[in-house]
Amino acid sequence: MLWPEDQREEHSAEMRHALKMLRRAMLVAALVAGVLMAFATFRV
C-alpha cells in the first residue's frame, strides 16, 4: 500500500508518539514493580 506523502508523514509522527507513550508506560511499570518488590522485601 502506498500512502500520499503527507499522510505517511502523519502516520510516522503518530507511531513516534505511540512509541514514546509505550516507553513511558514501560518505565512507570518498571518503577512500580521495583517499589512493590522493595515493599515485599521489607515486609519479609
From TrEMBL:
Matching NCBIfam families: morpho_MmpB
Residue stretches spanning the membrane: 21-42
Organism (species): Actinacidiphila cocklensis
Protein name: Uncharacterized protein
A Pfam family: MmpB
Keywords assigned: Membrane, Transmembrane, Transmembrane helix
Top-level taxonomic group: Bacteria
